[in-house]
Amino acid sequence: MTTYVIRRLIQALPILLGIAVISFIIVHVAPGSPIDKFRTPRVSEEQLQNLYRMYGLDKSLPEQFWSWLTSFVQVWNTDNQGHHIAWGYSFSNGRPVLDLIVDRIPATLMLMGLSLLTTVVIAIPIGVLAAVRQYSAEDKVITTFATIGYAVPSYWLGLMLVYTFAISLNLFPLGGMHTFGKEDPVDLAWHLVLPVASLTIQQVAGWSRYMRSSMLEVMRQDYIRTARAKGLSSRSVITKHALRNALIPIVTLLGLTIPSLLAGAIITETIFTWPGLGYLGYMGVVDRDYPVVLAFVMIGGAMVILGNLIADILYAVVDPRIKY
């Protein structure tokens, strides 16, 4: 297993390099410039040119890319104050990008972790119930709500949650991570309800449908009929024989969900002004903050690779027949 993991990590290096090249080109050829926000009648052209030189934007694209890439991989680089400068400085506030990301990671991990945990706890039992009681009233209700939840755009869902529960009913806060002057766990949990619900509803809708389909396929297998013929209870057949094999496709879905949660967090964190990586990436795009945007994209690419690697490892956990 260790050899397999090392080999996969080595194979990931060319993929990350390709992501770096493509994202760097897209960011720099997109209309606009980080200097545009400084263009006012009170700022002279000479001052603007000084900003170009200070940010290194006066160099050619290959020079800028090589300078950024060589600095990006040297994560250990720090300045005189101990700040990590490998990923550059933010054009917006002048802080090291790596420090900004480290500050935002706990908030995003909290949001993503809770939504993923809630999704697993709700979606798997619902999918199993829909499969076991196929074509029943429960199955039809679950399928209907799963279809609606899967079809609803994430931004619309988030806005409706804010309008309904924060504005109209005034049950939850509009956004943020804490109420001003409060930083207790209860207040944090209260702020988490709506963003976690926004991410979870769509994930549960998709996961429950996958779980239902996988469970139905497994329950038609010969070994399930054999288990029933031996006189095993229906509960034992479902939990000990059918469910474990039905979870194998769900493991694949788990690997794909990890990076998709980060992408979904961009919209959710922006709507709920949650101070996480997604909101940081959004503000980086708005401000054309190249170092922040590139770091965010690279983290997303690394999460895709990590998610697939975790899925491959979990295959062996779920199915002992799989060996690496």
Largest beta-sheet details: none
CATH class of one domain: Mainly Alpha
Q: What series of H and E elements makes up the topology?
A: HHHHHHHHHHH
Q: Which overall shape is indicated by the principal axes computed on the Cα atoms?
A: globular
Total number of strands: 0
| Gyration radius, in Å | 24 Å
* Total helical elements: 11
CATH superfamily of one domain: MetI-like
Which whole number gives the mean pLDDT? 83
- In percent terms, what proportion of residues is strand? under 5%
List the uncertain runs.
Answer: none
| CATH arch. level architecture of one domain | Orthogonal Bundle
The CATH topology of one domain corresponds to MetI-like fold
What does this entry look like structurally?
With 324 residues, the chain is mainly α. It has a domain at 100-286 and 309-318: MetI-like (MetI-like fold). The protein is built from 11 helices and no strands. Helix 4 (97-132) runs antiparallel to helix 9 and helix 10 packs antiparallel against helix 11 (290-318). It is globular and about 85 Å long. The model has no long low-confidence stretch (mean pLDDT 83).
Describe the structure using short key phrases:
mainly alpha; 324 residues; globular; 11 helices; MetI-like fold
Question: TL;DR?
Answer:
The protein has 324 residues and is mostly helical.
